[in-house]
């Protein structure tokens, strides 16, 4: 099989696995299950996935956590791509442009988490795995109150600032623009408003 045929076979395996899961009453598979199944099929078909980072920029984000402690996170974003390689014929490749975003209290950790999350998210989306539990924009990691379904998670807020920084705006300007357009703080945006902001910054940032 050529590389494209192998990728189709991997996708078929994901779809069949998802249907089996639905039979047990679950609409979605977990991201961990899907990733494990995909990697298993990649190994059997001798398909490799290689990340290629092209450029990165970094910034810092100051905030107060749920306990009121002042914290600083390092935010890393960058242009990259993932290259599929047919190990049986290494000259046969497929490169897909992608982006990475990472935020941690240490810049090395931010870069590492960005790569890890980026690869995980890329694989799930590339093969259209029907999973929502590992969508970075669907998780609340803010610790700002149990059961609070309103507003954005801390991860979403950090991503918004990172996209704004890449588009040429610092934190103060991002806050000012959002307040002017929606009359609210970034963490209080709805998911629809958040998508509008992020899409605008991505376009201006040259995506």
Count of strand segments = 3
Q: What is the oligomer described by this structure?
A: single chain
**Largest sheet, if any?**
3 strands, antiparallel
- Estimated radius of gyration: 19 Å
Strand content: 15-25%
Which segments are poorly predicted (pLDDT under 50) over 5 or more consecutive residues?
133-149
- How widely separated are the two ends? 33 Å
Mean pLDDT: 80
Order of H and E elements: HHEEEHHHH
How are strands sequenced across the largest beta sheet? Answer: 1-2-3
Shape: elongated
What is the tally of helical segments? Answer: 6
Secondary-structure-derived class: alpha+beta
Helix content: 40-55%
Q: What brief labels describe this structure?
A:
207 residues; three-stranded antiparallel β-sheet; elongated
Question: Can you tell me about this structure?
Answer:
- With 207 residues, the protein is of the alpha+beta class.
- The protein has a domain of 72 residues.
- It has six helices and three strands, in the order ααβββαααα.
- The chain has a three-stranded antiparallel beta sheet.
- A hairpin with a 5-residue loop joins strand 1 and strand 2.
- Helix 1 packs antiparallel against helix 2 and helix 4 packs parallel to helix 6.
- About 8% of the residues have low confidence.
List the helices and strands and how they pair.
Elements (H helix, E strand, L loop, with lengths): L2 H20 L8 H15 L1 E18 L5 E17 L6 E12 L2 H20 L27 H13 L4 H12 L8 H14 L3
Helix pairs in contact: 1-2, 4-6
